[in-house]
Amino acid sequence: DCYLCSIVHSGFAFPDWAYKPESSPGSRQIQLWHFILELLQKEEYQGVIAWQGDYGEFVIKDPDEVARLWGLRKCKPHMNYDKLSRALRYYYNKRILHKTKGKRFTYKFNFSKVVLINYPILDMANSPFFLAQNHFNGGSAAPDCSPEVRLQIQYM
DNA sequence: TACGGAACTC
DNA sequence: GAGTTCCGTA
After folding, report:
1. C-alpha distances in angstroms, A139 versus A123, A129, A143, A144?
2. Is residue A145 a contact partner of residue A2, using CB atoms and an 8 Å limit?
3. Is A97 helix (H, G, I), strand (E, B) or coil?
4. Which of residues 4-23 of A touch strand B (CB under 7 A)?
5. A52-56, A72-76, A115-119, A135-139: lowest mean pLDDT where?
6. What mean pLDDT is reported for chain A?
7. Strand B: which positions are within 7 A of a protein CB?
8. Residue A58 to residues A41, A53, A81, A101, A104: CA-CA distances in angstroms?
9. Span CA (A65) to C1' (B6), Å
């Protein structure tokens, strides 16, 4: 881990506010991208789904298993990767996710969008802080941080 | 494998 | 609104 990552890991936990399910009051049901982040957060699923490559990029290493777990959560015993991936594709227009072309089973989160969904008042796109953070991301201060660590740093 | 329309459900 | 199911297309 890089220096900043180790500080963040030792001092703070990743804030739930970045993706808490309660913040979508309209639909009580768990959202797929919440579920994906949930799996990504737990080390026991690293053989199934894991952060890999660019910031926000993750690979579904075992599509059948991810689909099975998702089906379990939603009580949809006939869930499969074909159906799950259709749901992921609906996130493209919403700008929550996009596909990493050429890389099999690889998608990428748009984290500024993910935070905006839960905390629209932050309106990062129009804040000077967002611009400063962009500059920060361009630098080499935190080259090896996972997206959640990067998010954490943005709000330190 | 990956995409996106269409009908359907909750 | 957020998927689920099914399917034609590349």
Report:
1. 23, 15, 8, 12
2. yes
3. strand
4. none
5. A135-139
6. 73
7. 1-6
8. 11, 7, 16, 13, 11
9. 28
For A18 and C2, how far is CA from C1' in angstroms?
A: 19
Say if CB A70 and CB A15 are below 8 A apart: no
Q: Is the CB of A104 under 7 A from strand B?
A: yes
Name the helix (H) or strand (E) containing A50: strand A49-51
Tell me: the pLDDT tens digits for A106-136? 999 988 766 666 666 655 455 544 444 444 4
**Which residues make Cβ contacts (< 8 Å) with residue A23, sequence separation at least 6?**
A17, A117, A118, A119
pLDDT tens-digit profile of A9-50? 332 333 455 555 544 555 578 999 999 999 999 999 999 999
Its pTM stands at: 0.69
